[in-house]
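3.2 Worked example (two chains)
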Amino acid sequence: MTTFVPGRRLDDDANMLVRWQQDVKGVLYVSQISTGEENDLRIRVYGRRASLEWQHRDPDTLIVRSNTGPANVYRRGAPYLSPVAAHFSRLPAGHPEAFIEAFANIYRSAARAVAAKAAAREPDPMDLDFPTVEDGAVGVRFIHRAVESARAGAMWVKF
């Protein structure tokens, strides 16, 4: 973790090696100084049989690559998507859906879950896909461990 911009109170660049359960390893790169990137969030997951790629700049597209054939491109709003994907799609296909709609989905799901509980009903399982207080606590704990590791000279720390 590094602070490149003078006067910033927080680190503005971090590169981390992470290890999850079952010895799954990853790289996390987070930066506020990547010139020209314009908040371009990217997620890439690599497995033995396939990989996934999603980018904030093209939020309606998920690319799945395997070593057995060409890349498959999945687009939001398409009829071949799962019921869960369709549930969280707010606009017709062809209209970009992204950052603001993602937060709207979270708020809508949380409101539906609260309304169901208030009416003594079980919430629809698809409406339970929003972060909880426990999820927030895990995120804060992760940040604390990352800072602890950086201050210890980039040593491994238990999460």
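3.2.1 Second chain
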Amino acid sequence: MNARPKKSFGQHFLHDKRYIERIVASIAPKDGDTVVEIGPGEGAMTLPLLAVARKMTAIELDTDLIPGLQARAAAIGELKIVHSDVLKVDFSQLARELGAERLRIAGNLPYYISSPILFHCVEHSAAIQDMHFMLQKEVVDRMAAEPGSKVYGRLSVMLQLACKVTPLFTVPPGAFRPPPKVDSAVVRLVPLAPDQLPKGDPAKIHTVVKAAFAMRRKTLTNTLKGLVDEATIRELGIDPRARAETLAPGDFVKLANAM
């Protein structure tokens, strides 16, 4: 029996087999991989992933879905279900508990909380091999946007400083129950190697990026007032009259280091 999607959890259950197969093929799990799924729902992605990985973990907040998911998974492989809000899950600790060097994370993320989940995963990127997420297409466009794009912003910069972001394909509303009002898209995030990560204080980088994009139409001189002065911005080879959306992710690191 199909569960009734709950609005409060932002649930849209994927049911189209063609897209499920494409997502599983994109993740390409291998026997022995430590796969962790966020929000498995009715198990549309869980069961095909489990059939290959033989053993996996799922994080589910909705208690009503857990018994049915465990029952369906029993004949396929070993499924460990963590009943929790994903934002409270320490992925670094989870990797240690599961005896994994690094986790492979997947999930159809609820639209209303997708950005906090992405930032939370990035905080634990040292314990993560890769991530495959289905999100609102508009969010994926922002994640992968380049400088100069209208949708390039804080999300683009913070994610690209931590990961290689690759949009994979679009998923139409009809692939879900109930159909959302927007297109979705699948994206792959691969955390950068330690030597590719920005050399600087993450808290300062976050402060500069947040301030710079707080008022998109204003210049850096205005948005970074009190953080980095105009002369210093110019010394870094950055035009103080430029707007945040024209800067490459690495420029924000330079600004943060000059704070």
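3.3 Remarks
The two ends are 57 Å apart (CA to CA).
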